[in-house]
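Shapes recur. Our protein:

. . .
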Amino acid sequence: MVLKKTKFNFDPEQKEIVDLIKLIQSAKFSIAENKAVELIKLYPNSFNVLNLLGLCLVNQNQINKGINCYNNAIKIKPDFAQAHNNLGIALKDAGKINSAINCYQNAIKFKSDFAEAYNNLGLIMMDQGKIKDAKINFKKALKIKPSLAYVHRHLSIVTKYKKKNPHIKEMKKTISNLKTSDNGKMHVAFGLGKAFEDIKDYENAFKYFELGNRLRRKKIQYDIKSDINFFNSLKKIFDGNLFEKFKTSKKNLDSTPIFIVGMFRSGTTLIEQILSSHPNVFGGGESKALAQAISKYLHPEFQVKFPEDLIKYNPITFDSIGKIYIEAARSFQPNYKHITDKQPHNFKWIGLIKLALPNAKIIHCIRNPLDNCLSIYKNYFNFNDNPYAYNLEELGQYYNIYKELMKYWHSTLPNFIYDISYEKLINNQKEETKKLLDACDLSWDEQCMNFFKSKRYVSTASVMQVRQPIYKHSINSWESYKKHLPPLIKILK
């Protein structure tokens, strides 16, 4: 946003700022954006409003516009710590990690007790594999603001607990505090679950995992029937007739993408870490590029229902989806032969991938269903892509419909999907790695065996695991919680 020149340099009344903040806290970002734009017209040099407008834009995935707002706020007030911190968050989302680090450090420079900035710096250190530095920053954040409950969960991720670790006592004190909100208790509960699992107290571990999931589920509006209906629609529409109709249409034949799909916690991060250790492959992480490309062309504004009316689409649409996707992928890394896309839920779009990018590779990760579902249940996810994750019955139901959809894709699109078993990879790393590379038309490279030495940035729930060599204790880990899992076991069987 370009600032207008004006002789005035003051902020709106406090009430207007408070009203704007309330809208943002209520996630009414579009309404808040409109209000902020109007205020900027009245007070073009208001660094507070510019900062809040940036928040509105970033939360609506308009990251570059948000970055401009933060930068403009900082131009007016160079020591505006909150804007530096928010700019860091936006730059991290844009993949500009070093710039994000500088922003967090600036925020701390201008506000030495900025607990949130220390936490954000710790998250980047964790994702970079700098575990000691991550711990230091998380502990600084908690020392400044012990009530910052989500930092307890972050600290738990980078800690290997023993029985007398004082952080366990600290978390129990926080979760028992009447002043701790349900949201705060939810974060601490996941942290305590992790801590008690480390010390092999599975009874208490499950008690806290269950509490964390229950509190998280209360905040989510979700009905499994919506996913059941959608998956059934996909199977009905993406049939032989559809693929036959578009068989001779123009297609994007680019072979850049390697899509790594499956359930969350099925080994997708491990597979990406192995592949990205190859000199011809760049690890693209959990990209939103495919979903964004699809929504650009298959959107309600075209007055065509998706997927019901897909057969009415112009074949050019699929070519355009492919082009947009490749442009987005290449904008991050133009110099590699292949770029991975480790968005697990892209399994829903395999039919569309076949129409838009028929030369793409699809790697499907499979894991023991009980281990897979339990691993999901033990983790908090900082996004809304898996609302089914916080209830054992819904989790089991979702796994079943995912399994049926993958079975359908295999039967409809033979030889398009390569399945890799997590357990087989763990038990026979070299042989399975060779098969994986062959499936991706990649030559053998010994670096793929030493994936844990890679310094690449990893930002998923598996960030700690992929920094270690292959280990086997995650196989059949569900047995430690067997007495608590009958609802899940019954549904999966």
Notes: The longest strand covers residues 257-262. Residues 243-463 form a domain with the Rossmann fold fold (CATH 3.40.50.300). The two ends are 56 Å apart (CA to CA).
